[in-house]
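Example noted here:
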Amino acid sequence: MAQFTPSGKSGDLKQEDDKKTSELVVCLGELLIDFVPTVGGVSLAEAPAFKKAPGGAPANVAVGISRLGGSSAFIGKVGKDEFGYMLCDILKQNFVDTSAVRFDSEARTALAFVTLRADGEREFLFFRNPSADMLLHESEIDKILIQKAKIFHYGSISLIHDPCKSAHLAALRIAKESGCILSYDPNLRLALWPSAEAAQKGIMSVWDKADIIKISEEEITFLTKGDDPNDDDVVLKKLFHPDLKLLIVTQGSEGCRYYTKKFKGRVAGVKVNPIDTTGAGDAFVSGILYNIASDQSILQEEEQLRKALRFANICGAITVTKRGAIPALPNKEAVAQFMLEATTINT
């Protein structure tokens, strides 16, 4: 018979809650509205209409983890406007903890117009002058929430301007002191930085603090000032720092490469017909962090890591088959079904 606690929950349910808390992934950064053309292969000026979709890389990751059955929370700021309320509601609907979301009465929620080229790749036009996410203050950071996290995940956009930059660095210190695994996806958006030099310096300023880094081939070329992103020596000598537990290089439909102190390798991608690549990298990050939050031994066991990276590859692949970021993120059942179908085809 189930034993009930003073809270009214059975002992089994309480254990499940405790497990969820122990696997918490806290994501800090931007939450915004993506406006995506209703047709592909056109410029912003040519687009006949736009469909609004919730987005922002760290928020996408928080939703992705929750969709997969994990526990996530988001720290950030939106405007005290209809878009801001809508975004917060979407996080809640996806069971993301929004207790650390702040609302700014002075600035509006960030907007991004995203064009989809004929090949499904994106081009961006941002409206942030400033937007609410840039105005998150250190005093608004939920220290207790960060201390509960197993993993603290962040990008680089929140490092561009103060006061958000100071808030980000303060949160990073709290996470480090609390023993969180620090996960970093630079998510380069060059148009948002004052210059290429500022972007490179800003992104690398927190590089050696991360335990896990996910980076694209384009970002390797940018950060190494033109070096070959496929050269293992470039990656290991210029980007792998002594305290790093895992460095992942995403290669789109080709899959990903991985590097740890003990082993390195490649996990092949899965083939789909892409419609929109928005959010694919965030879905990938959700997939790998969901697995690591559940079992940290993945970082030491290569076979387990390879399984987790295949899972993450599939998360990314499913996402590109739909428009928008958050609307396209898969649940665990969708990933399992994809794996089953792929196994059936291969046999």
Summary: The two ends are 44 Å apart (CA to CA). The chain has a mean pLDDT of 90. The domain at 23-345 is CATH 3.40.1190.20 (UDP-N-acetylmuramoyl-L-alanine:D-glutamate ligase). The CA atoms of residues 2 and 12 lie 7 Å apart.
